[in-house]
Write a structure and sequence with these properties.
With 277 residues, the chain is α/β, with parallel strands linked by helices. It contains eleven helices and seven strands. It has a single domain, classed as Rossmann fold, CATH 3.40.50. Strands 3-2-1-4-5-7-6 form a seven-stranded mixed sheet, sandwiched between helices.
């Protein structure tokens, strides 16, 4: 069977165009450099064998795809942001690793059934607006007996709190399902129930370490992270100041560093591993 096709309303098409523009804004490749240690921890726990056919959904600029390819994994990465796909290709060429990077939609994956041994998404597929479509697609392209692995921010964790603050200042589009529902165990089990033989979940902490204080972390997000950059641009000056104040307070409150010069936050996420039936 070829890739899944779903009807899309004009409103949903407009939302997807908006989401694409959001993720293409800022500079996620630069932004994600401080997230690399946690990404590599996640990849290491997967213990991917050389030769494994791995699909990385929401691959960004190749944060885990390129290290996996370097280790001999047959990697395909897909992302909605065309500029990040080009950055991933450039990095792969520069590092001399073989990997395929495709621009595409997590809800309509351009791959045949049973194409991959491992389908993985590190803080990526959770941002697609129709989670049921994403779940069905991840199951479809994974071979029977293969694994589906995700890392998703929880509603209660630091990043979930950050999204709640942003949503208070700039309400999300009505068609957009809450991304952090992917960080709720019961919701994930329901979404991945059909087509899987088993699902295991575990809450973990993602290390977020910045060599500058919380106020500068908030500004770093506004400059380089698409969702916060776009939220800021939607507000007037007073609204921008209020959003910044709230986010500085959040980073300050959750900061474990006590030197006044750096920021260390542990952000909770749900690690999910499902076995394809």
């Amino acid at each position: 069977m070829a890739e899944m096709t779903t009807e899309m309303t004009p409103d949903m098409k407009a939302l997807k165009d908006r989401l694409k523009a959001t993720w293409m804004s800022g500079d996620y490749a630069h932004f994600s450099q401080y997230l690399e240690p946690g990404a590599l921890e996640f990849l290491q726990r997967l213990a991917v064998e050389p030769g494994t056919r791995m699909l990385d959904i929401g691959c960004g600029a190749g944060q885990i795809a390129i290290p996996a390819a370097r280790a001999g994994v047959q990697v395909t990465g897909i992302d909605i942001a065309a500029n990040l796909i080009e950055r991933a290709r450039e990095r792969a060429r520069a590092e001399g690793v073989r990997a395929q990077f495709d621009e595409g939609d997590a809800e309509m994956l351009p791959y045949q059934d049973d194409s991959f041994d491992l389908v993985v998404s590190l803080i990526g597929a959770m941002f697609a607006p129709r989670p049921e479509e994403v779940a069905a697609e991840m199951v479809r392209v994974c071979r029977p007996g293969g694994r589906i692995a995700m890392a998703n921010w929880t509603p209660e964790g630091h990043v979930g709190q950050m999204f709640k603050i942003v949503g208070k200042h700039v309400p999300p589009p009505p068609l957009m399902a809450s991304p952090v529902k992917w960080g709720d165990e019961a919701t994930v089990r329901e979404r991945l129930r059909e087509g899987t033989a088993s699902i295991t979940t575990e809450k973990r902490m993602y290390p977020m370490r910045y060599p500058f204080p919380p106020a500068e972390v908030a500004d770093f997000f506004f400059q380089y992270y698409g969702p916060t950059l776009r939220a800021l641009s939607a507000l007037d000056p007073a609204g921008q100041a209020a959003l910044r104040d709230d986010l500085v307070q959040l980073w300050t409150r959750n900061n474990r560093a006590r030197d006044g010069a750096t920021t260390e936050v542990d952000a909770e996420y749900l690690e999910v591993v499902a076995i394809r039936a």
